[in-house]
Each structure stands twice: as structure tokens, then as C-alpha cells.
Specification:
The protein is of the alpha/beta class. Helices cover 28% and strands 17% of the residues. It is built from 7 helices and 6 strands. The chain has helices at residues 43-47, 69-80, 106-116, 160-166, 174-189, 227-238, 246-254, and strands at residues 10-15, 54-62, 89-96, 125-132, 144-152, 155-158. A 6-stranded mixed sheet has the order 1-5-6-4-2-3, sandwiched between helices. Strand 5 and strand 6 form a beta hairpin. The radius of gyration is 17 Å and the shape is globular. Bound molecules: zinc ion (ZN) (2 copies).
Length: 258
Amino acid sequence: MRYFGTISLIIFLTMMVHSCSSDDTTTPSDPNIENNRPLGTSASDILSSDDFNSLTIELVYTNSFRPEASSILGFKNFIQGLVNKPGGVQFIERVIADQGGAPFSIEEIRSIEDANRSVYTEGDNLAVYVFFSNGASESDTNNSVTLGTAYRNTSIVIYQKTLEFITQTEPEVLPILEQTTLNHEMGHLMGLVNIQNDDIHQVHEDPDSNKHCVHEDCLMYYDATGVGRQMLSKWTQLRAVPQLEIQCLQDLQAKGAL
Ligand SMILES: [Zn+2]
Ligand SMILES: [Zn+2]
């Protein structure tokens, strides 16, 4: 089943496992060093109560491309169902001006974060930042787009403009696809799948898709040859967002998840 007219899209839900060289130059004097580490290194800190008693999620967007309220609600439920934070999870929404220079490279997405992020990890409160981008990814082509990328230990970009564009003929798909993207990228921050090579279930890492899950029904599944069409048709028919299957869930629980 096609959802987007004659365009067959390959959709990327990506992560940046290897930090670029600029990330390696952080010094102990960097005030934001706790939030400038490689992807997956804060998985236990996000999930468990061992070192951080509370979690703050900062959602940053522009007035041009605001996330759907139902997507944010689903994202909140997803996080609150997983993280063990006796001090609670706080969500802060902030509107910033449209960012110029789109389409954006991941280096530009990092610069936007550096200029606009307002909540950083401090004391026993861990901070996560999500930017809903008013521009597309620079790596998009006519037949492949990136919907989201987890690119630092506590940083996610959601390509909101792209999400709205590819769902314009089926707007009811938008909240499902948006929430799936949010939850999927958050799964990468939580270390899935085996991003730091420390998952207890290493067998479910997809040998054909770096740091994704081999189970087709799992939130962390990714088939580079056509997940967009498969995932969209399947989950939009079900009107549901994919869940974490048992091995991914147990990997999180081994790191302190509820
Ligand atoms: Zn992914
Ligand atoms: Zn899985």
C-alpha cells in the first residue's frame, strides 16, 4: 500500500555512533561536557536512579513546525514507562525562532543545539534535548529522507518539516510516524541496540543494519531497503506505534529501566 502518491520513500531513522573530531576535543573545563559525549554512553544514567534521581526533557521547536500534541503525549508515556526516576520526569517546551541555513548537516544541528539548548545535566538531574527542525536533513534525496537522528548522548533531532511534508496527503499518519520517530531515537539514547556493545542480548542486533533490532515488530527495527513503506503501511493500518519487543526491553532493564 502506498501512502505518498508516486513517491517511494526510503526513510531513515538514524544515529551517529561515532562522534566527530570536534566532540573529542572537549576538555574538563567544558561546562557542557556531561551532554557532549558519544551516543549510548548515558543509557544507564537515563534509565536508572543510580546516579541521577530525576530527568528533564527539553523540547525545542519553532512556530512554523510544531510537534503534534498527541505525539508529545505518547512520547511522555513511553519515557515515563521506562525510566526509574524517583524525582520524576519534567518536560519543558520552548519555542525558538526559525533556524536559517536549511537543509541542515549534522554539524549545523549540533551548532543549533549549542546556541539554543537551555537545560544541561546538573547535580542529580539528567537533561535530554530534542529539537524539532524547521529544515530537512542535508542528506535527503528525491527518494530517501531522514526523519530523526540521535547524535550525542542526550541529543535528538526530529525533522519536523520532513515529517509534515511526507504525510501531507495522509495527515492522520503524522502523529503515528512522529511518535515512532521520537520513541525510536530515544531508544538510541537508551543504548539500543548494543550501541556501546554492552547489551545483555547481543543476538538481536541486526547483522544487516548497524545498531538496530532484528525483530520486525520492534520499535528498534530498521530495514535500510524499505522500512519506510513497510513501517508506514503496517503501523498506520494498525493505527499504532511499534513497541519494544522483549529483548530490547530486557536490555533496558539490565541498565536500570523499570
Ligand atoms: Zn535508528
Ligand atoms: Zn528489539
